[in-house]
Inverse folding.
């Protein structure tokens, strides 16, 4: 069966140890976590986790069931195959040589990013978008010299709120 | 009036109708034991914390309730891990209470501190660290609720010493309700209708029962289904006793050491009704050749059990008892009957398999272990509660002791934990004081919790231990004989202890049979002892368990002798 990438959105109790239960279930059962993004929701007792994983259809089914089985997991929503919005943020420290500055700022403009820190030799660029968009930006920035990068991993919400 | 944490804990234990606790005291739990001694709850002071958990496990199974352990922090807690893992694999409801260092010291590598919640996360159904006395009663109540509901399992509650000593007012709490935990008990009607259609079309149906039938108390419903369809029944190790072992529809256990007819029936059936089973690898053998001609109905309360190992035609997530009762009602209401002609052919085919390769052994000059179990079965008329260790002793017990009722066969099925049987027998004897409780052991496995002889004698628990002594770790030796060219690395355990003297040293009775004609007298004498008795049988050293399906082979390809 073909491997598929799935974005799963979880509502969980906002308590110590919950992330460990989820991560432990994945590692203990040999499932893969590609990225993980966690923060509290409007209800401070509840956190939302956006998790990207991959596997064949049976593995994905098991992952969904095993997540549901965890007592601290309130809701499991497999977004892949539904209509949803997915965004990721990256902070990119890029070398800003005088000859490149204009090109970097042009890319920032095209990709609708922001320069959030400037010093004599580097910029920090804040970029938000889908993973593909960030990959494309990074590819274009690479020749200028990327010194450091911090990506959040995707965060996602379903579109059609019923 | 304000109560201490220890007193609040006792109040909740009383509300949960706990009447026995298995455990060992230690620095972090002195306050709890201090309060426990003031209650009517019986404390069984075992000698090792692993045994505390196995004993609570045996107690839980024999009494159909939640078993409770109480141990101290650090090593007391870590010693429980094997017992917890065994209970988790076998879905046995337990609450394990562990002491912990005071909250202010947690994380400081304090004396006897260990992160037991972290350690047991993958082998508990759920676990808690209580961080505030205000949470204590709720957490303990939730622990019992989670342990016993849905697919049961062990729940651990870690209790820091300062929480146990703090004071708070206490009001009994209502039954817990957790928004993130709602087991499905009722079967889906549409799925039942689909199942009904498969049943109607089947010419060669086979029922495969598992531990879920025992746990959900669904034996009567299972028997009714089998009778209505006149369908043969097989059951996993955990399901033994769920269907009468003497019934004419009974095939014996399937799988690696299953009967020839059970495995051949799985290979030939056109409908397999799996009830409360999880299609473990020891049952299925090579997955893609398992039940190759069958449509499969799979009833289980745990959605993760379904489509985990095998593909099924109709999954039904529900309590086994509820699902079977509803299925039976529908079969009745729809007037579904079996096709007599095909049913007759199917059963006569099975009868033929039974006669081709029956379970058999030849008793000659040396005691055969199978003969001991078969004789034990006859002398006890199948009425004993049997626990086992793990290995050959366990398989011979499963093959030659015919279980006619549920909750009378206690074994570590999933984890396969040597050292389980004896403490589990102690727990079962505490639960059912009037019944005969027998641990069937090997000379290797009995030594894994043999210190509990002291516990059995101390509490006057007349547990009986059958040691099938072949001076080998026999099951592994069997693998070495068959698959490692008889290189018996690390399995020869000759020069073991004198079990008779050992029994006597602890204050019990020890009897030994060295020749076949001594088997009956030793069993008769040992079983009639009013105290703990070890009956040791010097058996054929290199006897193997047959049939045997080599690991990873199709279950219809058995080594027969």
């Amino acid at each position: 069966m073909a491997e598929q990438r799935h974005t799963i959105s979880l509502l969980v109790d906002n308590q110590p140890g919950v992330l460990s239960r989820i991560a432990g279930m994945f590692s203990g059962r040999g499932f893969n976590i590609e990225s993980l993004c966690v923060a509290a929701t409007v209800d401070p007792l509840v956190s939302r986790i956006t998790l990207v994983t991959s596997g064949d259809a049976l593995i994905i089914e098991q992952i969904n069931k095993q997540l549901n089985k965890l007592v601290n997991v309130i809701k499991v929503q497999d977004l892949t195959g539904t209509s949803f919005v997915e965004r990721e943020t990256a902070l990119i420290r890029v070398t800003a040589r005088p000859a490149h500055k204009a090109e970097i700022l042009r890319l920032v403009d095209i990709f609708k990013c922001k320069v959030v820190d400037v010093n004599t030799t580097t910029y920090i660029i804040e970029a938000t978008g889908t993973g593909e968009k960030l990959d494309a930006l990074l590819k274009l920035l690479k020749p200028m010299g990327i010194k450091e990068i911090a990506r959040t991993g995707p965060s996602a919400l379903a579109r059609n709120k019923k | 009036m304000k109560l201490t944490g220890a007193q609040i804990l006792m109040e909740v234990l009383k509300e949960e109708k706990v009447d026995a606790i298995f455990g060992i005291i230690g620095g972090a739990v002195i306050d709890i034991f201090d309060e426990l001694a003031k209650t009517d709850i019986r404390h069984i002071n075992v000698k090792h914390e692993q045994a505390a958990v196995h004993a609570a496990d045996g107690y839980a199974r024999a009494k159909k309730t939640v078993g409770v352990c109480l141990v101290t922090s650090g090593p007391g807690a870590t010693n429980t891990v094997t017992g917890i893992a065994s209970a988790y694999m076998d879905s046995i409801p337990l609450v394990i209470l562990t002491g912990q260092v005071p909250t202010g010291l947690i994380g400081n590598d304090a004396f006897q501190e260990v992160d037991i919640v972290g350690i047991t996360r993958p082998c508990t159904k759920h676990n808690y660290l209580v961080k505030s006395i205000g949470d204590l009663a709720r957490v303990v109540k939730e622990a019992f609720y989670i342990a016993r509901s849905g697919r049961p399992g062990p729940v651990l509650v870690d209790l820091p010493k300062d929480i146990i000593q703090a004071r708070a007012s206490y009001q009994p709490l209502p039954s817990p309700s957790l928004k993130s935990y709602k087991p499905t008990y009722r079967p889906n009607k549409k799925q039942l209708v689909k199942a009904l259609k498969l049943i109607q079309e089947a010419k060669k149906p086979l029922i495969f029962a598992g531990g879920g039938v025992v746990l959900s108390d669904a034996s009567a419903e299972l028997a009714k289904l089998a009778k209505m369809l006149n369908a043969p029944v097989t059951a996993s190790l955990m399901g033994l006793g769920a269907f009468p072992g003497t019934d004419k529809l009974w095939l014996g256990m399937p799988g690696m050491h299953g009967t020839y007819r059970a495995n051949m029936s799985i290979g030939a059936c056109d409908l397999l009704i799996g009830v409360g089973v999880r299609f473990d690898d020891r049952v299925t053998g090579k997955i893609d050749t398992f039940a190759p001609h069958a449509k499969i109905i799979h009833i289980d309360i745990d959605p993760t059990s379904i489509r985990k190992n095998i593909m099924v035609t109709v999954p039904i997530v529900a309590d086994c008892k509820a699902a079977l009762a509803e299925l039976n009602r529908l079969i009745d209401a729809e007037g579904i009957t079996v096709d007599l002609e095909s049913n007759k052919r199917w059963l006569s085919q099975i009868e033929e398999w039974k006669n081709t390769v029956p379970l058999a052994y030849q008793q000659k000059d040396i005691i055969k272990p199978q003969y001991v179990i078969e004789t034990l079965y006859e002398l006890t008329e199948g009425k004993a509660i049997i626990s086992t260790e793990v290995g050959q002793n366990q398989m011979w017990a499963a093959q030659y002791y015919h279980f006619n009722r549920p909750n009378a066969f206690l074994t570590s099925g999933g984890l396969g934990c040597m050292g389980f049987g004896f403490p589990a027998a102690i727990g079962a004897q505490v639960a059912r004081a009037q019944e005969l409780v027998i641990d069937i052991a090997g000379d290797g496995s009995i030594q894994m919790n043999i210190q509990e002889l002291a516990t059995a004698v101390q509490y006057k628990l007349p547990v009986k231990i059958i040691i099938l002594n072949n001076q080998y770790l026999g099951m592994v030796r069997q693998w070495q004989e068959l698959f490692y060219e008889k290189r018996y690395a690390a399995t020869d355990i000759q020069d073991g202890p004198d079990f008779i003297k050992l029994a006597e040293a602890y204050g019990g009775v020890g009897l030994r049979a060295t020749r076949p004609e001594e088997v009956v007298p030793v069993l008769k004498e040992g079983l009639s002892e009013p105290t703990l008795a070890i009956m040791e049988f010097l058996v054929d050293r290199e006897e193997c368990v047959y049939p045997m399906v080599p690991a990873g082979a199709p279950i219809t390809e058995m080594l027969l002798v």
